[in-house]
Design brief:
The chain has 393 residues and is α+β, with helices and mostly antiparallel strands. The chain has six helices and 20 strands. A hairpin with a 6-residue loop joins strand 6 and strand 7.
């Protein structure tokens, strides 16, 4: 798991006037809306004596108030009030928690969990059709009981469709003729690989799946990544009809992942506002279809061993169809060399002792080194030109 990337925190629609605790990268965060309604994400551990800020209250002045002794923290993580000191008391500079850059996009609150300055941050995966009235979108989230990298790799894997998905493949019935075609590079950036390929799709039969009225034949599809945890998947049903799906994944810990699925389609909806009810019904049908397909992935990937991807590719026998997965792993190695990988063995060992809690370092740590909570342990950088701020401290 890596710091210095954008992670989905909560669906915008699920964030109201109470603070909520969210676990990402094996750390706890509080997410809340300030007085202006803007989402804020802070480290959940109060620096006074360890209260959980998410158990507190959102105040009219835009702060979140710790439930233990009432310290208030604003969206920048600064403590604005310590009640035990009395009114108008001076607040010590160290009375602050890590606060993370936040952007609300595509119906999701995203937080940048890391300490990079703005100009150096990787992007949130762009959805080019967002805002285009020719497309309609839905956003859902669900949890899966496995490591996020296993989940992303499953999405980058063109060879599983034939066996796992009744909607995409023939379940091994045509072994004489089946072969994965060429993987053509698509949307490749410094933040991740991507590909498109053409394959034979079966006609859709079950009622919920027949929705797109696909009669079978050649289809184009592909996927790619942006950072370790964001993925696009294009499913081109015909040259003009498509379903584009975007996965924003939050590793809860090493064996649990919260998946946010943003599904865009330029089919199966009415553009007229008068058909709102019908569109909502179609959204539900699309959601059922997506979860039917996701359920097939979940059933298989839950059983994959080892739970984490092996440290050496020699411990798996990769084929040309796994090429993009290998490229994704190369990117992970690159980010590890920059010093962005969390040292999970050490973190787990320390947390087990029960007398230490860490925070993911925020950009504020570049301005001052005086913080109450220690920054989470990272695998030391080996790329001398790109040493993370934290590794250098
Ligand atoms: S622990 Fe938060 S105010 Fe005391
Ligand atoms: Fe799949």
């Amino acid at each position: 798991m890596f710091i210095n990337f954008w992670y989905p925190v909560i669906r915008s629609a699920d964030l109201g006037t109470t603070p909520q605790r969210v676990r990402i990268l094996a750390h706890d965060f509080v997410v809340f809306r300030d007085a202006a309604g803007k989402a804020a994400v802070l480290s959940d551990t109060c620096v006074h004596r360890g209260g959980s800020l998410s158990g507190g209250k959102c105040m009219e002045d835009g702060t979140v108030r710790c439930p233990y002794h009432g310290w208030r923290f604003d969206r920048d993580g600064h403590c604005t009030r310590i009640p035990s000191l009395g009114i108008n008391a001076k607040i010590p500079a160290r009375a602050r928690v890590d606060a993370y850059p936040v952007e609300e996009r595509y119906g999701i609150v995203h937080a940048f969990l890391g300490d990079l300055p703005e100009a150096e941050r990787p992007p949130i995966l762009e959805i080019f059709e967002a805002g285009d009235p020719a497309w309609r979108s839905t956003v859902v989230s669900f949890d899966v009981p496995y490591h996020y990298e296993r989940s992303i790799e499953n999405g980058l894997d063109p060879a599983h469709n034939e066996y796992v998905h009744t909607t995409h493949g023939f379940q091994g019935e045509r072994e004489q003729t089946y072969k994965v075609g060429d993987l053509v590079p698509e949307r490749v950036t410094e933040w991740g690989p991507g590909f498109l390929h053409t394959y034979d799709a079966p006609p859709l039969t079950k009622s919920v799946l027949r929705f797109s009225r696909r009669k079978g034949g050649q289809m184009q599809a592909g996927s790619g990544t942006c950072g370790p945890n964001q993925m696009w998947t294009y499913i081109r049903i015909s040259p003009t009809k498509a379903m584009n799906q975007y996965l924003f994944e939050a590793p809860i810990d090493e064996t649990h992942t919260r998946v946010f699925l943003v599904s865009y389609r330029n089919i199966a909806f009415f553009r007229s506002g008068l058909k709102a009810k019908l569109n909502n019904w179609m959204d539900r049908k699309i959601h059922e279809r997506n979860m039917f397909v996701a359920g097939q992935d979940i059933a298989v990937v839950t059983q994959v061993q080892p739970k984490l991807t092996p440290p050496s590719t020699a411990r798996e026998l990769m084929m040309p169809a796994d090429k993009v997965i290998a490229q994704y792993r190369d990117k992970l190695d690159e980010w590890e060399r920059k010093g962005w990988r969390i040292d999970m063995p050490r973190l787990k060992r320390d947390l087990e002792r029960g007398n230490v809690i860490y925070a993911i370092p925020s950009p504020g740590r570049r301005e001052s080194r005086s913080w109450v909570l220690e920054a989470t342990p990272l695998v030391p950088a080996t790329d001398p030109g790109k040493v993370s701020q934290l590794a250098a401290v």
